[in-house]
Amino acid sequence: MFVIVKKIRSTQKLVPLVSTLTRQQRCKFSSLPELTKDRYPNVKRGNYGHIDTNHLIFFKDLLGETRVITDESECLGYNTDWIKANRGYSRCVLKPKCTREVAAILKFCNENVLAVCPQGGNTGLVGGSVPVFDEIVLSTSLMNKIVSLDTTSGVLTCEAGCILENLENHLDEHQLMMPLDLGAKGSCQIGGNVSTNAGGLRLLRYGNLQGTVLGLEAVTANGEIIDCLSSLKKDNTGFHLKHLFIGSEGSLGVVTKVSIQCPPKPKAVNLAFLGLQSFDKILTVFKRCKHDLGEIMSSCEAIDADSLAVTTDHLGLKSPLAKFPFYMVIETNGSDNGHDEEKLSRFLEDVMGDGTVEDGVATNEPSKMKAIWELRERITEGLIHDGYVFKYDLSLPLENFYSLVGIMKERVGADAVRVSGYGHVGDGNVHLNVAVKEFSPEVLHKIEPFIYEYTSKLNGSISAEHGIGFRKTKYMHYSKSKEAMDLMRNIKDMMDPKWILNPYKVLPQ
Ligand code: FAD
Ligand code: MLT
Ligand code: ZN
Known about the structure:
Layout: H1 23-28, H2 36-39, H3 53-63, E1 68-69, H4 72-79, E2 93-94, H5 99-111, E3 116-119, E4 136-139, E5 146-150, E6 155-159, H6 164-172, H7 190-196, H8 203-206, H9 209-212, E7 213-219, E8 225-228, H10 242-245, E9 254-261, E10 268-276, H11 279-292, E11 297-304, H12 305-314, E12 326-334, H13 337-353, E13 359-363, H14 366-377, H15 379-384, E14 388-395, H16 403-412, E15 418-424, E16 429-436, H17 441-447, H18 450-457, H19 482-495
The chain binds flavin-adenine dinucleotide, D-malate and zinc ion.
Flavin-adenine dinucleotide binds near residues 250 and 255.
């Protein structure tokens, strides 16, 4: 047991992570959102075919009856996104089990001009994972085999539908870990992670998927299988095609297999949860962390009081600290616990001694670390209990990381139940959330496009890690030049000339 500052009072009783709920349970979680086509009437259905009996006969011949879902209530979970912000009305969900089936589906859809929405764990936060209209849902959830694990190099090769947490558990047996971790780990799939280029809680230490994904296999719109499943760390032979699929959110192809570099599981993990009076003090602590914890720092997260409150008030979690305007979660991963404890202990004594940090707890007991991490990881879930959440995921210069929260509070005023900010301060990535009782176009107009103009003026990114999906297509130009967007469009035209893959997403119509 390692307690530097003070003992965590008790082992908290944990409620299950919403990310571990089943698709059907998630649908019952709150009332259904309005259909996307009604909420956004300016978006028109493309000139795609409508599913008919002949199409269904083809799919059933290919996959069998049980892997072609057409029942309305069964389709509902695949039509509705996790944050209950978007809902399509597809009546065709396909569940291939292998790359060959994915290829046959896409070839057929391309020939018949049927639109397809690839879907992994459906935890995406920008409306990319669900149909906008009646697109066929291509779910990778049955493509969940681990192909190989080289325990010497740490290279894991697996199918796209493997759930992140299952991969983590498998690696754990071999003293390895996944290079990414996020609150949705119980549901999100590696194919979805790669397709969104997900960041998560330890990016500052283990890097992003553009670096850790060594290779992948993908199927393009015409059903061609692109085998770039290299497990080599170094391979400079021609264009790095894998990058076309990492972060392109299913608009250029369906990722079917991934090979990924997994780091060794740290022998020593320590976690501190700190209370602070101002955001400036968070920046001071972060800067000092980089110098004083250096190579062992694995996560540096910021949480404001309103964000923490949703986990305590709505989800019943217990905070080990009294109320503060701001909190930080700082984690270390190392190989020598004595060394790490001493280093973290000295660091915390310093920042508390000079008043930068008001109060804090530190631990390396797994159950207590889990309880602290839940306070951070379950904010997304807690916010949904407020009603509808306008979610923003911005990269901003650190000195402006939190300023938008105050500005937005003034703009939205009493229309909001809550305006809060938290996120990956170590990566300059803030999650700004405006929670309202229910979706309101008036509130939306108070926030957008202002928030994107503001971000653009500061040379930030309008999407740091969640992607563009359906919700941000109109605003990509705030972060990308016309020439860059033209090139993206040309690539899309070349790889998916009929635009059957995830239409209405990523690129503006
Ligand atoms: P889905 O939601 O199913 O799909 C996401 C996008 O990828 C869609 O556009 C979909 O069409 C496409 N896609 C999915 N699978 C494939 C495939 N095999 N081939 C091609 N395209 C595909 N994101 C972060 O970056 N960092 C976080 O810390 C983080 N935390 C989260 C916490 C919670 C509680 C939740 C609900 C979400 C969080 N997210 C986070 C957002 C989300 O991007 C990730 O959860 C995850 O990467 C999405 O994976 P998924 O399998 O659920 O993909
Ligand atoms: C997070 O960091 O918790 C996720 O990106 C999800 C969110 O922004 O709510
Ligand atoms: Zn995040």
